[in-house]
From TrEMBL:
<dbReference type="InterPro" id="IPR001790">
    <property type="entry name" value="Ribosomal_uL10"/>
</dbReference>
<keyword id="KW-0699">rRNA-binding</keyword>
<feature type="compositionally biased region" description="Low complexity">
    <location>
        <begin position="17"/>
        <end position="28"/>
    </location>
</feature>
<keyword id="KW-0934">Plastid</keyword>
<dbReference type="GO" id="GO:0005840">
    <property type="term" value="C:ribosome"/>
</dbReference>
<keyword id="KW-0687">Ribonucleoprotein</keyword>
<dbReference type="GO" id="GO:1990904">
    <property type="term" value="C:ribonucleoprotein complex"/>
</dbReference>
<dbReference type="GO" id="GO:0019843">
    <property type="term" value="F:rRNA binding"/>
</dbReference>
<dbReference type="InterPro" id="IPR022973">
    <property type="entry name" value="Ribosomal_uL10_bac"/>
</dbReference>
<feature type="region of interest" description="Disordered">
    <location>
        <begin position="1"/>
        <end position="34"/>
    </location>
</feature>
<keyword id="KW-0150">Chloroplast</keyword>
<dbReference type="InterPro" id="IPR047865">
    <property type="entry name" value="Ribosomal_uL10_bac_type"/>
</dbReference>
<dbReference type="Pfam" id="PF00466">
    <property type="entry name" value="Ribosomal_L10"/>
</dbReference>
<protein>
    <recommendedName>
        <fullName>Large ribosomal subunit protein uL10c</fullName>
    </recommendedName>
</protein>
<dbReference type="InterPro" id="IPR043141">
    <property type="entry name" value="Ribosomal_uL10-like_sf"/>
</dbReference>
<keyword id="KW-0809">Transit peptide</keyword>
<feature type="compositionally biased region" description="Low complexity">
    <location>
        <begin position="1"/>
        <end position="10"/>
    </location>
</feature>
């Protein structure tokens, strides 16, 4: 007859130190990464991210192209502090601008990408903060700037001033805008030139060191050029 051995659990309580050790071991045991509850990105998720990235890139490229298109036949490009302007104010402002002036909101990085390597690159000091960009497609600079000045005063937007502008390749800081706002209009230039042409030759010779005949021919050619440009822009 074979003897069978039976083992019975000890009646002694477990050692406190052993229990603490086991508890620490359980708390510090590394988590099995295969049992992690955090869901992994799916192929669908990756596809959505790729699509969004492509759309964003396309929008940026379109914005750059729009800026480049508006730089064609542009005589002045100015930045305006856009931060704080509401959508309603922006819409109201667009309504009061002349047809030859266009207002575009675009990131500084995209604007700089469009003007880099061109005479408009002089606008670089404006590339800070939030800007709206004023494209003036007319030689009449003061009438293009005045609507915003009036709007700025009416809405009490003192903090939304011009950040700068480029005209004929030269940068104008905010404190230099008086020069742009007081430039003579085409009509004023015509009147001045015609008045000079009708003045006595002796007066011309006295004010400008050039033969009277040569000066008159030069002024006539300039007036003709202005008239041709004016006719072509209509």
């Amino acid at each position: 007859m074979e003897a069978t051995l039976f083992s019975f659990p000890s009646s002694k309580p477990p050692s406190p130190s052993l229990t603490q050790t086991q508890s620490k071991t359980l708390l510090t045991r590394p988590t099995n990464p295969f049992l992690s509850l955090t869901p992994r990105p799916t192929r669908h998720h990756h596809r959505l991210l790729t699509i969004r990235s492509a759309i964003s890139r396309t929008k940026k490229e379109q914005t750059v192209e729009t800026i480049k298109e508006n730089l064609e036949n542009c005589h002045l490009l100015a930045g305006i502090k856009y931060k704080g302007l509401t959508v309603k104010q922006f819409q109201d402002l667009r309504k009061v601008l002349p047809e030859t002036t266009k207002l575009i909101v675009a990131k500084n990085t995209l604007v700089y990408k469009a003007i880099e390597g061109t005479p408009w690159e002089a606008l670089k000091p404006c590339m800070t903060g939030m800007n709206a960009w004023l494209f003036v497609h007319s030689e009449e600079i003061p009438p293009a700037i005045k609507p915003y000045r009036d709007f700025q005063k009416e809405k009490k937007l003192d903090s939304n001033d011009f950040t700068g502008a480029v005209f004929e390749g030269k940068f104008y800081a905010p404190e230099d805008f008086k020069q742009l706002e007081t430039m003579p209009t085409r009509a004023e230039i015509y009147a001045k030139l015609l008045g000079t042409l009708n003045s006595p030759a002796s007066s011309l010779v006295g004010t400008i060191q050039a033969p009277a005949r040569e000066l008159v021919m030069l002024l006539k050619a300039y007036v003709q050029k202005l008239e041709e440009e004016s006719g072509g822009g209509q």
